[in-house]
Amino acid sequence: MGRPPCCDKVGVKKGPWTPEEDIMLVSYVQEHGPGNWRSVPTNTGLRRCSKSCRLRWTNYLRPGIKRGSFTEDEEKMIIQLQALLGNKWAAIASYLPERTDNDIKNHWNTHLKKKLKKLKEPPNGHSMVGFSSPHTISRGQWEKRLQTDINKAKQALHEALSLEKPSPNVPQLKPSNGYYSFTELKPYNGPAYASSIENIARLLKGWVKNSTKQAQENSSTTLNDSVSSEGTQIGPKQCGVDLSEAFESLFGFESSNSDFSQSMSPEGSERKPDVGNQNPLSMLEDWLLDEGGVVQGKEDLANFSFDEDVELF
DNA sequence: AATACCTCCAACCGCAGTTTG
DNA sequence: ACAAACTGCGGTTGGAGGTAT
């Protein structure tokens, strides 16, 4: 027979999360780390299904989430990646580690899709020159772009792997307890989810509900400030062009959905113990060294930029 | 001031692949 | 081997807040 249900279907609460529930969830994750969601409702007393707990954590309470409006560079990156990957929001989110796939998806659906539609169909009826998407560029161009992206990723990986000395831009993978705090890009030490605490602080502000507009502005500002003050906020130059830095996100934090991060996070390694036998980095290194694409990648890199989309903004 | 309409986003739903008893 | 739960993902929805009329 199968396994027992993770939580009772009867009496499971739905709808918006209350601050009390958030605190319960964060407290639990502080103690046990993310993962093993099926045990969360039982152990916390939350009347939520495990799925809802996981979603709440990954989309809202998880450390390092940046909220607020998207920067132009983030938007450019999303547009590029969407053109490259399609609606693979989780994959796109892995390039924008401070944004959740849900956020990116929402932003795409509410802003970028309209923006692109508008630009594709200008009043004069001519399609925009210079806009590139799989639908508007030739197949040859498209394939070249795809190859360029792969090469860039390989190049970035090669650079990261060949660094003996820790680069200030490359996070170190030495967790003391198995968890990483992306926000700080250093090993996550102990149960102090710094950014979660700030998320909770923000929640509590809302909870205390002097819910004036002023309070909301302050709280969101506080969060954004706190993120940037930790030094890892993806700034315009960081996230826009340099995929090598974007690649850091694949290795230096516990992304919500990245395949890489899943295999490297405690959660992922729990579920895929085989990875532990072969260093995932060495696997990637093998792949990297398998093709001599790095040099070519550098050439292409020089020819590749988001500049051609600059007209979008 | 009242109402309608619009925007945004948190959360839900359903599916597919994976894991587990 | 199989069935059922778990997990992750993408699509969609509903309600709160904002804006226009």
Automatic annotation (TrEMBL):
Residues 215-232, 257-266 have a biased composition (Polar residues). Keywords: DNA-binding, Nucleus, Repeat. The keyword Glycosyltransferase does not apply. Coiled coil: none annotated. It is found in: Nucleus. One of its GO terms (cellular component) is nucleus. GO terms for biological process: response to auxin. InterPro entries: Homeodomain-like_sf, Myb_dom, Myb_TF_plants, SANT/Myb. Residues 9-61, 62-112 form the Myb-like domain. It comes from the Eukaryota. PROSITE patterns: HTH_MYB, MYB_LIKE. One of its GO terms (molecular function) is DNA binding. Residues 9-65, 66-116 form the HTH myb-type domain. Its main location: nucleus. Residues 215-235, 257-283 are annotated as: Disordered. This is Myb-related protein.
